[in-house]
Amino acid sequence: MNLGKSVIKPVAKDRLPELLRRMPKAELHIHIEGSLEPELIFALAQRNGLALRHASVDALRRAYAFTNLQSFLDIYYAGASVLLTEQDFYDMTRAYLLKAAQDNVVHAELFFDPQTHTARGVGMETIINGLHRACVDARADFGVSASLIMCFLRHLSEKGAFETLEQALPLRNKLIGVGLDSGEVGNPPEKFARVFERCRALGFHRVAHAGEEGPPEYIWTALDVLKVERVDHGVQCGKDAMLMRRLAQDRIPLTVCPLSNFKLCVFPDLASHNLRQLLDAGLVATINSDDPAYFGGYMNDNFTQTFAALNLDAQQAWTLAHNSFEAGFIEPSARQRYFDRLNETFETFQ
Ligand code: ADE
Ligand code: ZN
Fold it and tell me: Which of 32, 64, 73 to mutate to test the pocket of ligand 1 (most atoms within 8 A of CB)?
């Protein structure tokens, strides 16, 4: 059964956080390296005999004061440098998927940045096998379905992206798609036109970060040149009315990350975030955590804090969760089961 918009019962404000926590949802924008909590960074550094720049967990956490995307990326890539063995990648992914399950995330699509690791001599097999084994185990152990999207680092060259793709091809059945991340401004999507064309020919799903800090033009070229099926962030589309109409008409999902946008100063505070405007314009917007260990919250933190700041309601909660399943790269019968679970939660919620 598919609940229409009009059937969503109003929910008292003080009960809304519980509904947000309880409703099943998909997370479609999580960089798995961004789930590395400082405690795990220190534990992995010790296990691998590596020295860290910061003296303690607390000192590292205190460094998490970002002014823009690049100021975050510098610390994020340093944190990821503790990952060396297949077990490291497994442990990181398992820790995230347990947290996701506790937030009633029933499906997750995880980004990973292989070039951050292959540049340090870590093998592609080590990376993908560790991530994938954790995804397989999470289905059995936590009831979460999880799949992998390999991201190309856009501050590096087209040649580097092609080499990365070649290294991953023997393991392609462990991936569902490719993405594009890292420093956006000055690295437009079209830099990777030929790589994405090859990925499309190979049958990979395609997504790209666009319009996080970069201009609306980058969203247009992500759509028209890279032929992406979803846009990661995309919030700068608010500056271009024609682009908003295009995204709404073609039902191109945006994987919005409110706490990330606040922590990276894309919006000065959560109350200024444009998520409500995106929903009002009929865009397929979703809520996600991006790099939860760095931005102060996992999925339910993003939902509860954003709903409080923007005064959103139960109807918008249902729409956001529904959008997450519509936007996921999910087989149709599984998607219908998620829709059914979502509707049942709303029908039975008191
Ligand atoms: N890599 C990890 N988090 C990112 C973000 N928010 N934007 C671009 N690249 C990223
Ligand atoms: Zn991201």
Answer: 73
